[in-house]
Amino acid sequence: MGKRRRAAVPAVEELISPVNSLDDGCLMHIFSFLSPIPDRYNTALVCHRWRFLACHPRLWLRVERPIRDVMEPGVYPNLEAAVSAARPGDTILIAAGGTHVACNIQIKKPICIIGGGELPDDTVLTCSRGSDNALEFLSTCKIANLTIRAELGCCLLHRSGRLTIQECLLQCEQNPLDYLSFPIISTAIEYNSFPSLKEQGHGVTVVRTRIEGGAKAVRTNGTLALQRVRAIYSRSSVFFWFEVGEK
Q1: Are 133 and 154 in contact (CB under 8 A)?
Q2: 218 contact partners, CB below 8 Å, separation of at least 6
Q3: Staple 76 to which of 81, 143, 204, 237, CB 3.0 to 4.6 Å?
Q4: What is the pLDDT of residues 43-68, one digit of tens each?
Q5: Inter-CA distances, 160 with 72, 114, 137, Å
Q6: Is there a contact between 208 and 230 (Cβ–Cβ < 8 Å)?
Q7: Residue 194: CA atoms inside 13 Å, Cβ hemisphere, count?
Q8: Which H or E run contains 106?
């Protein structure tokens, strides 16, 4: 019998995925189109190079307390500092563990704020008594995977733009003044006489979010109204889907 020929071993270059032949700038641009959680987060687990690019400050800012390295770019000690430094379109990732203070933080640019834990309960923003709200939105924004607690007042104040709340937990702590507490307050007004503004629109979209405490889930002081409410009851929680839009 003739000797068996050994299968040719492909060269190292042939084993490398074509995507790895792209330079860092091109690869980072591709990562920017991925949703921060879970897609961009998962890319950081592939290799050291992808982790460096997926966690680059150009793609998102990080809030960590305490900061290990004050000179590390894109890392901030609190959410207010990160919001101030963010550019339109940026994503802010808040580290899981501990409690982050959020009191009357105004957000006037379109950004995304995401909790870094596996569950919303892992990343908690607390609004202390004496503050009107934790976060105030004056632009189109998205928040996801966060727990936001308010001792008095509201968790989220929506003034303009389109706000998306996805897989969060909004809590108004029980107190004798519960009738003054609301998880969400919207004061947005639709300008029907200006078509260009109407096309942009204002509204709130809530997706798979738990709401606890307060006088009622949403209070509207503007021209928007609660619409398309859906709730799913589990053993320990109630998850809500609804929209606040033009009447």
Answers
A1: yes
A2: 182, 183, 184, 185, 186, 204, 226, 242, 244
A3: 81
A4: 878 888 888 888 776 778 889 876 66
A5: 34, 20, 7
A6: no
A7: 7
A8: strand 105-107
Specify whether the CB–CB gap between 174 and 213 falls below 8 A: yes
**Rounded mean pLDDT of the chain?**
82
Amino acid in the structure at residue 61: L
Q: Taking the model in full, what pTM does it have?
A: 0.79
- List the structure tokens of 55: 């966690």
State how beta strands 169-172 and 147-150 pair: parallel
Instruction: Note whether 221 and 185 are within 8 A (CB).
Output: yes
Name residues whose C-beta falls within 8 Å of residue 165's C-beta, 6 or more positions apart in sequence.
142, 143, 144, 156, 184, 204, 205, 206, 207, 209
Whole-angstrom Cα distance, residue 150 to residue 132?
A: 9
What the block records as the tokens of 222 is 């503007």
The residue written with tokens 């933080």 in the block is 105
In the prediction, which pLDDT does 5 show?
59
Cα distances (Å, whole numbers) of residue 98 to 118, 122, 179: 14, 8, 29
First to last CA, the chain: 85
Closest listed residue to residue 38, CA positions, set 106, 97, 114, 96: 114
